[in-house]
Amino acid sequence: MAGFQPFNIKYGEYPPSFEPYELVIERSLEDMQEVFYDQDAVKKTLAKDNPPIVKVWMAPLPNEGGHLMSCMTVIYPGTIGDEYFMTKGHIHTDPVNDPEYYLTIRGEGLLLLQTREGESHISEMVPGTLNYIPSEWAHRTVNTCEDEFVFLGIFPASAKRDYSFIGVGKKNFNKVVVKRSGKPEVTDHP
Ligand code: PA5
Ligand code: MN
C-alpha cells in the first residue's frame, strides 16, 4: 500500500470550517500588538478588550518536502485606530522553492507583498481571484470589509515562516491599510 493515503478536506464559509485539521492558531490583539503602527490605539484597546483577530486551521499533513500544505485563515472585522485587522505577515525562508497561493472564499481584503529589498506590491483579494505569492515576497493579508474575511492558502509543507523583520522598531511592511471615510486606503507606514 502507498505510504500516504489520499484524503479530502471539507471547508465551509458560514461559519468558517475546515475538516480535518491538525492545528488551529488563534491570535488576539495581545498576541500581535507589535504589528499595528498606532501603539497608543493598541494600548487603549487592550485596556478594555482583547479582540480576536486571526484564526488559522492547518491540514493534517507532515511539515515535510513532498507534501502541499493547505490552511484556512479567518480575519475578523475591525480596526486598531484606523488600521484594519490583519495577519502578522511573514516571509518564507527559502527564496526560491516556497511560493504560495491564496484563494478567497468570503469577504474582501488586500494582500500586501514586499521583498527583502523593500519593493512592494498590493493585490486585491476577492472571491473569484486566486493570488499567487512568489517565494521571495513577504505577505500580509488585511480585512477591509465589515464581515469575516476568509481565504485558503496552499504552499509546500516544508516552508518555514520568518516573522523576525516585523515589529516595533523593526522594518515592518512599508505600507499600511487604513480606513478613511469608511473606505480602505493604502498609505506609507508613518
Ligand atoms: O501560510 C500562510 O501564509 C497563511 O496560512 C498565514 O500563515 C496565515 O494567514 C496567518 O498569517 P501570519 O502567519 O502571517 O500571521
Ligand atoms: Mn505564507
The overall pLDDT average reads 95
Ends distance: 57 Å
Major β-sheet annotation: 6 strands, antiparallel
Number of strands: 17
CATH class designation: Mainly Beta
Bound molecules: 5-phosphoarabinonic acid, manganese (II) ion
* Percent of residues in helices: under 10%
Total discrete domains: 1
Q: Supply the CATH superfamily name.
A: Jelly Rolls
In spatial order, strands of the major sheet run: 3-4-5-14-9-12
The secondary structure category is: mainly beta
| CATH architecture group name | Sandwich
Our count of helices gives 1
Q: Beta fraction of the residues?
A: over 45%
From the spread of the alpha carbons, the general shape counts as globular
Q: Whole-number radius of gyration?
A: 17 Å
* Annotated CATH topology: Jelly Rolls
- Low-pLDDT stretches are none
Element-level helix/strand string = EEEHEEEEEEEEEEEEEE
Short description:
This protein is mainly beta and 190 residues long. It is 5% helix and 45% strand.
Can you offer a commentary on this structure?
This protein has 190 residues and is mostly beta strands. The chain has a single domain, classed as Jelly Rolls. Helix content is 5%, strand content 45%. It has one helix at 39-48; strands at residues 10-13, 16-19, 23-28, 52-58, 68-75, 79-80, 83-84, 91-92, 100-106, 109-114, 120-125, 130-133, 138-143, 149-156, 161-162, 175-180, 183-188. The strands form six sheets. It has a six-stranded antiparallel beta sheet, with no helix packed on it. The protein has a three-stranded antiparallel beta sheet with strand order 11-10-13, with no helix packed on it. It is globular, with a radius of gyration of 17 Å. Bound molecules: 5-phosphoarabinonic acid and manganese (II) ion. The site of 5-phosphoarabinonic acid has 14 residues, from β4, β5, β13 and β14.
